[in-house]
From TrEMBL:
The keyword Phosphoprotein does not apply. Belongs to the class-III pyridoxal-phosphate-dependent aminotransferase family. Keywords: Pyridoxal phosphate. Pfam families: Aminotran_3 (PF00202). One of its GO terms (molecular function) is pyridoxal phosphate binding. It comes from Lihuaxuella thermophila. The lineage of its organism: Bacteria, Bacillati, Bacillota, Bacilli, Bacillales. InterPro entries: Aminotrans_3, Aminotrans_3_PPA_site, PyrdxlP-dep_Trfase, PyrdxlP-dep_Trfase_major, PyrdxlP-dep_Trfase_small. Its cofactor is pyridoxal 5'-phosphate. This is Glutamate-1-semialdehyde 2,1-aminomutase. The keyword Metal-binding does not apply.
Amino acid sequence: METSYLQKTPTSLQLHNEAKQFIPGGVTANIKFFAPYPIVMNRAGGAYLYDVDQNPYIDYNLCYGALILGHGNERVTAAVREQLATMGTTIFGTPHRLETEMAKLLIDLYPGIESVRYTNSGLEATLLAIRLATAWTGRKKLAKFEGHYHGGYDQVLISVHPSERERNHPPAVKPDSLGLPDYYTENTVVLPFNDLEQTAEILKKHRHEIAAVILEPVQGGYLPPDLAFLRGVRELTKEYGMVLIFDEVKTGFRVGLSGAQGRYGVTPDLTALGKVLGGGFPIGAVGGQREIMELCSPARGADILSNDPHQSSPSDTEILFHSGTYNGHPMILAAGLATIRSLQQPGTYAQLEEGTMKLRRGMEEILDRFGIPGHTVGEGSIFNIVLADQRVKQIQDVLRSDLSLRKELDVALLSQGIYIKPLNRFSLSTAHRSEVIHETLERFEQGVKRLAKGRWSRVSNQRCLSAYPSKEQ
């Protein structure tokens, strides 16, 4: 870790050490940690974050992509204040008008959505989607793609972080956490992204067992699919009676108002949404074909938590239970609606993607100028930097890139005031205007210059050492 990082963030180190005494690892989610310690933030505004040592950063994490309008957007904060004042409370615990208003908007925007249920996170959304698919098909196996992340629960914590494999070998079923029951490894099928031939072979083998195929249509939010691959998966799932689930938690509103399904013209049976949908507040949603979604309608039978003698008992009918005290929280939906309405303004996406491409091309030019092999890869307002000569199509290509050098680059960028969790993707917001992009490229050049200088020094030292024979020789 660079000395400048340690020198600039002493209070973050102090607070992290204090947090470790009361919170496992000093963080409330594993994703928030990076070595030697994460930076503790204190305030934010627009495209900028400020840590507890008052260091400013241009933020390209944006709460892992959730803040597409940037920090403290006036339209969003005004909507939340107005909603709170109008309600006279924080939450009703009953139906309210914004639930229907948001549902109608999502149905209008997303080709694969005819009916909607809300959850409190993208994790819960994928969980409900899988339960719906399992109930609909009566099958028990789930097919997921190598390297795709759908939340931190047992059923999908498999092969998210795979090992390198030979190109002609199928992906392994690899548990990614302690405490996973064998049931999930035994009933999970892992597929290779952007490899239609091998995917077709595996799906055919398990065609009578798989309830659903779930995938990030853009892997990790930045690895685009081959259109033929995405269309092929859609056709195969139809042929074998499997439910196709698009996990659009990352791509929803990030690659356009209609997500990846709108961008690529491939319609899933079920869609999971989150992140941008909440305008910076926790939310998830599942939408899909009406007949599948109706499985969770209470009209089919009793609420399992109700003892009402006038309702049919759970044993009398088929019930798919779904509930949550905070589902469809009015303040969160107000923030989400304000966000979507801002994104619907003419020219918003064109400007956002134009800025993203300007940043990407500028970064590539700087890397090339300093002799560092690498390029950007992404879709819409998300991208990543891959330090490799060859183009990437799936997680295996990323694993073969120079990840150690990429981590060094990210640390150098942190020291230059560009905030990105090491090895993570970049997300932009409407607050990242041209002057912010320009400032970012200036800082990026300084970070790359420092990286290239350190790399040259290491190479020179190695050459000097190799010029003298060792004692063993």
